[in-house]
Amino acid sequence: MSRNWIAVACAEHVRRGRAGGFMQVCHGKAAPLRRIRPGDRVAYYSPTETFRGRDRLQSFTAIGVVRAGEPYPFDMGGGFVPFRRDVGWVEGVETPIAPLLDRLEFSAGVRNWGAPFRFGLFAVSGHDAERIAEAMGVALPLPG
């Protein structure tokens, strides 16, 4: 059975992953990516536009389906070798989270709704995945 995930990264990094057909989480750690399985749906939340930026964005910036295969290392040069997973990204509209907060199960009625995002990757319900996809202008189920 497929699961649904929210991953966290700045929009600049998410767009790079979207263009390359991959995802990275938690500064390139492999362990979180091993929790994800092929066929799982993933939406990216971007708190900022740039890495360590103060330019608040607080939007969902990508949505897609994890492709077959395992996490793999990728040498980005300079000694940085993060782990990645391949994802089939779907064209969607980047959308702010604020209008969705009362409609998402993980955040409805929760004062500190941002707490789960600190983990960099967390599972959400099918209901939440549907609300996010709908807000991004994407129909579910997503093509694999």
From TrEMBL:
<comment type="similarity">
    <text>Belongs to the UPF0310 family.</text>
</comment>
<feature type="domain" description="EVE">
    <location>
        <begin position="4"/>
        <end position="134"/>
    </location>
</feature>
<dbReference type="InterPro" id="IPR015947">
    <property type="entry name" value="PUA-like_sf"/>
</dbReference>
<protein>
    <recommendedName>
        <fullName>UPF0310 protein EJ913_08475</fullName>
    </recommendedName>
</protein>
<dbReference type="InterPro" id="IPR022996">
    <property type="entry name" value="UPF0310"/>
</dbReference>
<dbReference type="InterPro" id="IPR002740">
    <property type="entry name" value="EVE_domain"/>
</dbReference>
<dbReference type="Pfam" id="PF01878">
    <property type="entry name" value="EVE"/>
</dbReference>
